[in-house]
Prior knowledge:
Blueprint: E1 2-11, E2 14-24, E3 29-33, H1 40-48, E4 55-60, E5 63-64, H2 70-76, E6 78-81, H3 93-100, H4 113-119, H5 121-125, H6 136-148, E7 154-157, H7 166-181, E8 185-188, H8 193-199, E9 202-207, E10 210-216, H9 217-221, H10 224-231
Parallel strand pairs: 3-8, 3-9, 6-7, 7-8
Antiparallel strand pairs: 1-2, 1-4, 4-5, 9-10
Helix pairs in contact: 3-6
Amino acid sequence: MLTVENIETFYGPSQALFGVSLAVEAGEVVTLLGRNGMGKTTTISSIMGIVRPHAGAIALDGVPIMGWPSHKVARAGLGLVPEGRQIFPNLSVRENLVATAANRSASDSPWSLERVFDLFPALAERRTNMGNQLSGGEQQMLAVARALMTNPRLLILDEATEGLAPLIRAEIWRVLEHLKAAGQSILVIDKNVEALTRIADRHYVIEKGRIVWSGSSGELKGNPDIQHRYLGV
Length: 233
């Protein structure tokens, strides 16, 4: 579904990505792992058109999308849950969801308010509250729900559970397991290797702007040296 081939991205004269390649197939859950500052968010920003790579190729179902503006990338079917949530603070929960609702892929069972509220009962209870009246965990739920309302072909989560309380983290993992079971393609960044190896099919590890390892959940769990060398604090 998504292919990223040898992209190189710069911020001014400083190079951040050095030939990064990864792929996500339909129905897969794939992770991008690494310590802070290693290029994870830059990779996502490059895919989403937030920053433009200087070289390489990015394609969705074989259609080149590198260089597209971010709104066109989103309309092509990539739904982003950004780091920091970035919900609309002066809109209600319901308004945040309705504002992004679209079914450009003509899904037979598109996401609706009812489906989202079934998935996130806490949001149903807070549907009339403003975004800035929500807790951090509720805001993260809303950010995921907002992305789902675009009916994305690929859901991308940048720091899925960072800074959340344990109960909220467990709720996010439950939701991702549910989405995987429903066939949703997902690319996720997070630091919880135990949870990620439970739900993900494949993993990429990035170090200083380069992919240094890739493999299955079984391979990652069976390779403590990789975890210690590239993921440990």
